[in-house]
Amino acid sequence: MTEAGRQRTGRDETEEERADRMWGELIQEVRVAQTGVQILFGFLLTVVFQPRYASLATTDQTIYIVTVVLGASATGALIGPVSLHRLVSGRRVKPQAVRLASRMTFVGLVLLLATMASSLLLILRVATHDSRVPYLVAAVVAGYLLCWYGLPLWARRRHTTRPPDG
Fold this sequence. Notes:
- By secondary structure, the chain is mainly α.
- The chain has four helices and no strands.
């Protein structure tokens, strides 16, 4: 409780302190996503050099190419915040850099979701030749959407406190 008898809301920090804190949190999040996308992308790059690649159906080769492009794009978007920080460090633009890096990270996560979905589609098509594969992939993607976006957006809406008017 504060002196006025009300609960304190928010943090007592300057814009620069807030940007520093948010940058640290963002970089930790990006590290997790970067590791996953880089490992996935590395494995994807090796597929084309496997003997079985030449015998894949044209559709599967197309899915592979799309998957590699998505993986490369996700990697670029998730590494972008690091480059951004390096290029603007010391220029007194951290609040703006945090907003831009946050957007790049969001785009990177969307691209990572698409990469994972298309990877799963390709793998299951090749492994099972089952007509139900798209439905299984759709179910997995729905789970990702729920965990990555649905629940966080629900929590944000449900638990975000607004400063009192006055």
